[in-house]
Amino acid sequence: MLKVMGIRPDDWPFIVVIRIFLDLYKNFRYPGHRKMLATGFISVVQQGAIHALMHAYQRL
Fold this sequence. Notes:
This protein has about 60 residues and is an all-alpha fold. The chain has one domain (about 1-60). About 80% of the residues lie in helices and about 0% in strands. It has helices at about 1-5, 10-25, 30-60.
């Protein structure tokens, strides 16, 4: 299953965060809250991307 999706085990937390965000986003009914949630999610994504890049750089 992992190999088919191309997801390494250390990528799982990131996938879980995205799933949780999507569930929350669908359940929010107020546009203001959605905007706040999206802003928070973007910062989490940026942190995750930086973290992933650092790990990739260390492996070289």
